[in-house]
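Supplementary Methods S3. Complex input for the S-adenosylmethionine-bound model.
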Amino acid sequence: MEVFGNKAHQIILGDAVEALTNIPDNSVDLIFADPPYNIGKNFNGHKEKWDTEDKYLEWCCLWLDLCLRKLKPTGSFYVMTATQFMPFFDIYLRKKLDILSRIIWSYDSSGVQAKKYYGSMYEPILFCVKDRNNYTFNTHDILVEAKTGAKRKLIDYRKTVPTVYSSEKVPGNVWEFPRVRYRMDEYENHPTQKPIALLERIIKASSNLGDLVMDPFSGTFTTCYVAKELGRNSLGIELQDEYVKIGLRRMQLASEFKGEKLKKEIRTFETEKISNSYNLTLFEEPNGTYLHGND
Ligand SMILES: C[S@@+](CC[C@H](N)C(=O)[O-])C[C@H]1O[C@@H](n2cnc3c(N)ncnc32)[C@H](O)[C@@H]1O
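Predicted complex, serialized as structure tokens:
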């Protein structure tokens, strides 16, 4: 296990269960956990598939319990997993916490175009708190447009003094955010990167300035990056060097990792752009540098 960063933003390179064990109990304000889903995704050559579903769930119970121990009594916990495992998480967690919302993150297209069944177009998120009478929820920071009444500029005559309908409301539990695509600025080389917009809503709603936000399966460190942008402190855990490198760069915590300069990977359309602007052909070297074909 290795620790990087500073007092406000820490990255732990290592196994989540081991790292979580060493974090003080009751110290975290908000946890967002987006673990491997046990669906055979390839995380930088590391295929995430347990021998049986029971073994996957056993492992999940271990880190779920640890997350609950680390959460402050006023803390909030958001957790994701594959649709087929979420019912187990729900039954397990509702004995220990209050589940306040069962959120559907709905998106515009699935990775695989299903032909003989209905393609998967959403991922579930549980929003849980330790104490339903004492938790952070910053309603005014996450309001969205209220389309009915307000949009049509109708007057609400149910009130003592008739008023226009409110033009804003707290979002419901179906959240529409596009998935991160190759051509988007925020794209990093990771198979299950979560969108900045999704984490912005969660962090704005369920934490305050200076609070500690933790993500035990950080991947591209979207959670920690957004936490930093929003003036929160962050703690991210990730098993793979490659992804820790993304986190260190994205959060501007280091410019090098074990002697290697940290640079964002150039995407194919960006090399085309560079090449077109110079009217030159660029050849990629194995070390990631580019040679001008006409040089
Ligand atoms: C679903 S992804 C998280 C994606 C992340 N939310 C993002 O926005 O990029 C799960 C991550 O957990 C990491 N991981 C898998 N097993 C782990 C373990 N035992 N401890 C820590 N991280 C682990 C994987 O390498 C992967 O990057």
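Residues 15-16, 34-36, 43, 190, 192-194, 217, 219-220, 222, 237-240, 243 surround S-adenosylmethionine (CB under 6 Å). The chain has two domains: 2-136+173-259, 265-295.
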